[in-house]
Amino acid sequence: MTNSFDDIPFFDEEPEHAPRKPTAAAAPAAGGGLGIAARAMAARDQSRAPDYLSGLNPEQREAVESIEGPVLVLAGAGTGKTRVLTTRIAHILATGRAFPSQILAVTFTNKAAREMKERIGVLVGGAVEGMPWLGTFHSIGVKLLRRHAELVGLRSDFTILDTDDVIRLIKQLIQAEGLDDKRWPARQFAGMIDTWKNKGLTPKDIPEGDARAFANGKGRELYAAYQARLKSLNACDFGDLLLHPIDIFRRYGDILKDYHQKFRYMLVDEYQDTNTAQYMWLRLLAQRPKDVPQNVCCVGDDDQSIYGWRGAEVDNILRFEKDFPGAKVIRLERNYRSTEHILGAAGHLIAHNEGRLGKTLFTERTSPDDEKVIVHAAWDSEEEARAVGEEIEQLQRNKHNLNDMAILVRASFQMREFEDRFVTLGLNYRVVGGPRFYERLEIRDAMAYFRLVCQPADDLAFERIVNTPKRGLGDTTIRTLHDYARARDVPMLAGAADLIETDELKPKARKALFDVIQSFKRWSELLETTPHTELAEQILEESGYTDMWKNDKSAEAPGRLENLKELIRSMEAFESMRGFLEHVSLVMDAEQNEDMDAVSIMTLHSAKGLEFETVFLPGWEEGLFPHQRALDEGGRSGLEEERRLAYVGITRAKRRCHIWFVSNRRIHGLWQSTMPSRFLDELPAAHVDVAESESSYGGYGRGGYGQSRFDRADPFANSYSTPGWKRAQANKTDATRDNWGSRSGHAVERIGYGESGPRTKTIDGELVAKSVASTPSKFSVGDRVFHIKFGNGNVSSIEGNKLTIDFDKAGQKRVLDGFVEKA
DNA sequence: ATACCGACCTTTTTT
DNA sequence: AGGTCGGTAT
Questions:
Q1: Which of A75, A463, A542, A586 has the most neighbouring CB atoms within 10 Å?
Q2: Rounded mean pLDDT for each run of 10 residues along chain A, 823 residues in total
Q3: A674 a catalytic residue
Q4: What residue ranges are annotated as transmembrane (predicted)?
């Protein structure tokens, strides 16, 4: 959900119930089937297409106009997916097939929902206000749940807990069980619950093995206790926002039936990212009795499924035609974003995956000036950052906007080096998806105050701020109160009111607690009468919270006060405090200022859906990308997901894509010698250039890299000495065949890298194939060698061009032979 | 209550 | 290596 305040008040009936009777000629006829007027309109559309349909290509147009029945749109990167979705909605509305409130449109992120709302607004002309059911799975889940909360034992003003609250709650439960919270970390259990909920499993459904694996076999009880505790707190976690509606739909057939009637058209974005729970939710809504049409349209790209580790099931998209017999499948393969080199490189890479639905992107927008994808090598990550910085400055001198450039990394620790470098250069950058505004300490504290005012049963909020700022309510008092409240099964705030009537507490604590209770009583009363921003300020003042930071002399304090002001400011856009709280719990983002011209730095994951003129992809090394852990834990499918991530990365680029790898990277504090990513070997020579050293960092003498005796002696070598590089050079002339555009079926022979050593051959026309055969090592076991970073050592074994060396100082390392020379 | 020290972890991230 | 968190010691 976005900042629309038409969603509040929650428990009011939806306005869409009012215009039941068709009022205009275009109104939908009841009970399926099109009314005559609607059909007439549709017919008219055939002959004279409305504006919004012009400019669509035939496939897009088909996807927009195939309104009735299940449709799967396989939309490759940059093929106009969002355009299809939004135009489709506009089309449904314009042809009068449904009211805005009868369309259910689901996205994964708030960003996507926001964008869709905007774009529909442009098409339809502002009437989007009336699309109450366009939003994320979670925001729609909240909406459903507010209406039917009592059916799952909640009140409709329930609170939504975030990850932090959940962990604190679980920790309490673990301690209450008398378990060692050290041995059984709450964080880990929260992760398990999340995984279970992603799969749609309630405590009774979880596998015995899972249940046993945690807390001496108490996993299941703990999960059940957690759910019970949520209920008593009148609270939900994120997973519940999906699971509770599923539960309601299953148990109350008449309610589900209502929604079947209500949602005439359903659209789902990024279908490849749905997890099992979301899938169940969708199926319940979309699979209807025979007499109700299944007008569901899912849009996705199996090649961009990168959230498997988070429970997404690519199978959902692969299975669509089975789930919805007679479904129409439409492929969008015409790309409007990238040059043919970029598409060629990406397409050839992704063709190495099996189990694809198979799409090949093409473009007609080619020019001889198009730059190929360029692969660069650097000695280490520092040099990588330096060189990328130089390229960016060069582009900047040629009048390119920083806003059109992005650095996409595999793991966030890679960002730091770039930030450091850009700070030195004075180059503007922005980190996308960094630490979130609403996760900051002071914001969470303030929010806890507001939450408790709105929802006095929110014990987590109570415990968070009861002694913040310090009021002399220490652990003992809280413990007493906690036990007292739990024994009576009342919320802590209510329990506190009773407790101060007794003499269980010391007078000092009693007085302090009394004051707290009085304050909250006062604020709660003001809630109905005072404007919420004013009340918020008052709360922070009267509680002493702002004073606490004013008196704090630490360096962060002024910033925190500034953030609090910002928090109040952002409340202004909302109608009520409750509405604001809900927004924050669902939308953890705070919008960034887009005004500044700056290079974006972000992870590959958060880059999905975005595009840039120029994209830099650093860190293409084995172990980092593909990430070792993805390989260890995910096996073959883990590797394929990494490859999709690489595909996503390349396809973000419109005109220029520069890939980097380094020979040495510091991981967990120690320098490791690294090997170029296997993905580099999977790029097609026809669309990829290998950068010449002089152009990118010539004259930069770094202790011999690029100038060693070894290099000069090597017939292949320019200044690049990595084998991957040499192989690239060597193959450049051989690989005359352009394999770009081949379907995935052309894979010839593949031997997994992970299990059985170096692969021998992959796909025709690749940069590189046979590392073992083509570059026999010039070293032998026992040779005394020198490595620039690790010093002297002895070769202990050789595998192709990879040497295992016992270094005198650095210990045993595996190193590519290009990096050592005979000592 | 605060300060200091040691243990631990370190892919990706939404909601 | 480095940052964070949690526990202990003052």
A1: A75
A2: 33 36 37 43 54 88 93 94 93 91 93 89 72 93 95 93 87 82 84 91 90 83 92 92 96 94 94 94 89 89 91 88 91 93 94 86 84 93 92 95 95 89 89 78 89 90 87 83 88 91 84 91 92 94 89 78 87 90 80 79 92 95 91 88 95 96 86 90 93 45 30 29 38 29 26 25 32 46 69 68 62 58 69
A3: no
A4: none
Contacts of A555 (CB under 8 A, 6+ apart): none
Token pair 């009583």 is found at A521
Cα dist. A208→A214, A217, A417 in Å? 11, 9, 45
Q: Is A136 labeled as ligand-binding?
A: no
Q: How far is CA A154 from CA A7, A225, A304, in A?
A: 19, 16, 37
Active site residue A270: yes
Q: Answer whether any strand B atom is within 7 A of the Cβ of A310.
A: yes
Residue A643 exposure: Cα atoms within 13 Å on the Cβ side: 27
Q: Is A25 annotated as a binding residue?
A: no
The catalytically annotated residue of A81, A451, A464, A727 is A81
Residue with tokens 């759910």: A227
Alpha-helical runs (H) found in A490-544: 492-499, 507-529, 532-542
Q: Which nucleotides of strand C are protein-proximal, with an atom < 7 A from a CB?
A: 1-2, 7
Distance of alpha carbon A533 from alpha carbon A449, whole angstroms: 13
Length of chain A as a residue count: 823
From first CA to last CA, the distance across chain A in angstroms is 65
Question: Model-level pTM?
Answer: 0.77
Identify the residue whose Cα has the smallest distance to the C1' of B11.
A411
CB atoms within 10 A of CB A353: 19
Distance A203 CA to C10 C1' (A): 46
- Cβ pair A100, A72 in contact under 8 A: no
A520 vs A473: CA distance, rounded Å: 16
Q: Concatenate the DSSP letters of all residues of A732-772 into one string.
A: HHH-----TT--GGG------HHHHSS----STTBS---HH
